TrEMBL record:
<dbReference type="InterPro" id="IPR050104">
    <property type="entry name" value="FMN-dep_NADH:Q_OxRdtase_AzoR1"/>
</dbReference>
<keyword id="KW-0288">FMN</keyword>
<dbReference type="GO" id="GO:0010181">
    <property type="term" value="F:FMN binding"/>
</dbReference>
<keyword id="KW-0560">Oxidoreductase</keyword>
<comment type="function">
    <text>Also exhibits azoreductase activity. Catalyzes the reductive cleavage of the azo bond in aromatic azo compounds to the corresponding amines.</text>
</comment>
<comment type="subunit">
    <text>Homodimer.</text>
</comment>
<feature type="binding site">
    <location>
        <begin position="91"/>
        <end position="94"/>
    </location>
    <ligand>
        <name>FMN</name>
    </ligand>
</feature>
<dbReference type="GO" id="GO:0016655">
    <property type="term" value="F:oxidoreductase activity, acting on NAD(P)H, quinone or similar compound as acceptor"/>
</dbReference>
<dbReference type="InterPro" id="IPR003680">
    <property type="entry name" value="Flavodoxin_fold"/>
</dbReference>
<feature type="domain" description="Flavodoxin-like fold">
    <location>
        <begin position="3"/>
        <end position="178"/>
    </location>
</feature>
<dbReference type="InterPro" id="IPR029039">
    <property type="entry name" value="Flavoprotein-like_sf"/>
</dbReference>
<comment type="similarity">
    <text>Belongs to the azoreductase type 1 family.</text>
</comment>
<feature type="binding site">
    <location>
        <position position="10"/>
    </location>
    <ligand>
        <name>FMN</name>
    </ligand>
</feature>
<keyword id="KW-0520">NAD</keyword>
<feature type="binding site">
    <location>
        <begin position="16"/>
        <end position="18"/>
    </location>
    <ligand>
        <name>FMN</name>
    </ligand>
</feature>
<comment type="function">
    <text>Quinone reductase that provides resistance to thiol-specific stress caused by electrophilic quinones.</text>
</comment>
<dbReference type="GO" id="GO:0016652">
    <property type="term" value="F:oxidoreductase activity, acting on NAD(P)H as acceptor"/>
</dbReference>
Length: 196
């Protein structure tokens, strides 16, 4: 049975473009996989704790049974069991929300999602597909911040072994020219994403 892990990073409860498009994506995904299971991790509404000294030190013990690692273990297990991962994410001050950074800090973990192989690092999350839905207020073409935003997210997923990453960027949401029927436009992008 197919499993999709959905991670929402927006702090907005209403009017979130990334969440709205994420809802449309999940609806299309469920239509394609009627028996599929969707796990949801809403880190925008239920923020994760930022990395602490205790947890960071526990990472280096090589033990998984330490109490300090309980949350990290659970998050890693969620990620491992889902062959498909959806991240919906707005841009805040040219970067990802700190809540999403906290999630990455808890799941990018040696011998859980990556390992050292000689002088190289090897991702351990094989045969997975990542979907990223990004939203940003500015929409001018050629912005370096947009590219950096995409590169960061794809690099983090690739580091853990998720190399098949497909992205939809909703740009210009704060501009007057942004259209009211944007969902119709991006619905086509969702279909293309799932058909690739």
């Amino acid at each position: 049975m197919k499993t999709l892990l959905r991670i929402d990073a927006s702090i907005r409860r209403r009017g979130s473009f990334s969440r709205t498009l994420g809802d449309a994506f999940v609806e299309a995904w469920k239509h394609r996989y009627p028996q599929g299971d969707v796990l949801r991790r809403d880190i925008g509404h239920e923020p994760l704790p930022h990395l602490s000294d205790e947890v960071a030190n526990a990472f280096f013990t090589g033990r998984r049974d330490l109490q300090a690692l309980t949350l990290s273990n659970h998050l890693c297990d969620e990620l491992k069991q889902a062959p498909e991962v959806l991240i919906t994410c707005p841009m805040y001050n040219f970067g990802i929300p700190s809540t999403l950074k906290a999630w990455f800090d808890l799941v990018v973990r040696a011998n859980e999602t990556f390992r050292r192989n000689g002088s190289q690092y090897e991702g351990l999350l094989h045969n997975k597909t990542g979907y990223v839905i990004m939203a940003m207020g500015d929409g001018r073409p050629g912005l370096r911040t947009t590219e950096n935003f995409e590169y960061y997210l794809t690099d983090m997923l690739a580091f853990m072994g998720i190399h098949d990453v497909r992205i939809i960027t909703v740009g210009g949401t704060a501009m007057r020219s942004f259209t009211d029927d944007w969902q119709t436009t991006y619905q086509q992008s969702i279909t293309q994403l799932l058909n690739n």
